[in-house]
Amino acid sequence: MLATFQDWAVNFQRKIIHVDMDAFYASVEQRDDPALRGQPVVVAWRGARSVVCAASYEARQYGVRSAMPALRAERLCPQAIFVPPDFSRYKAVSQQIRAIFRQYTPLVEPLSLDEAYLDVSHSPCCGGIATEMARSIREQIFATTGLTASAGIAPNKFIAKIASDWRKPNGQFVVPPGRVEAFLTDLPVARIPGVGKVMQARLQRLQVSTVGELRSLPLAQLEAEFGSWGRRLHERARGIDERAVEPFSPVQSISSEDTFAEDLRLEQLEPPIIEQAARTWAARGKTERVPHTVVLKLKTADFRILTRSFSPETPPASQAVLTEIALALRERVNLPADTRYRLVGVGLSGFQDPAPMAVQGELFASPGER
Hey, where's the site called Substrate discrimination on this chain (predicted)? Predict the structure, then answer.
């Protein structure tokens, strides 16, 4: 096991850029409708089952955030202007942005419509200087789309993603190899991907709240406490991330889950199922691929995990359909009535590329129909 980031970096000299568009959906709406500029814009349908897809920076000043229930966003910012999402328009802009990325490197890994990793380690652009490439990419995005982007430049994906958030909006931040551990030391452990509220609580019991404090724990103790995840924590605390940028990694599944403050009975799960279905559907809007299976995940108070799934004849085409199926899957849980549940999750899986139906229709049309 390599002891430090510097040891690891000797063997892996990479230059990774993480580009993240600024309030992407809301910014597209403000670009296309001048009346929305400078206004608190919330991209979401109104209604009890709706969730915020994006919020402009003006709306964020009131505490509105992505994945928040729309009703809560409305309470936080009564003057917000709600705009229904137009994913076909966002996808078209995203394709323009990805075309810009490919001018700098073929190693582009999109995470969603509005963010991507770029491995520019061997790119000859801008004299091979990653910070100049990031600046050039952001300038080209603005010239082409009228939108701003932020970027993080670092030796790996983990650090680059954190860095891209450092000078938002419309900024960039570089973490050179020699500064990785110092950069991480004072960050809260919540900045490590996968460390949610439950993991934070477990780490707090070990008197760990920052990455630096996590770094002080020996690997053996972390593995004893967290199993295989302990090794991942040990590596991330040192800024080590050996994952390659994967240009071809199509979405296979999307899910959202939440651990309750107190355990609930099965009949009490309808509101959290509705909320997680909304979050999953909002995330589904970030991919062009089509899901075919709905998954309901439950974890009992004694940590037993159950999943129920259903693949309808027609792929789920709306948040309402996803919610309906997820609630129906709850009826297939046949544990004793007094069973308590500590977590619920709703997912979509079985993603496939959309079938080119219109093209096929023209291909097989009879001569008289053409």
Answer: 25
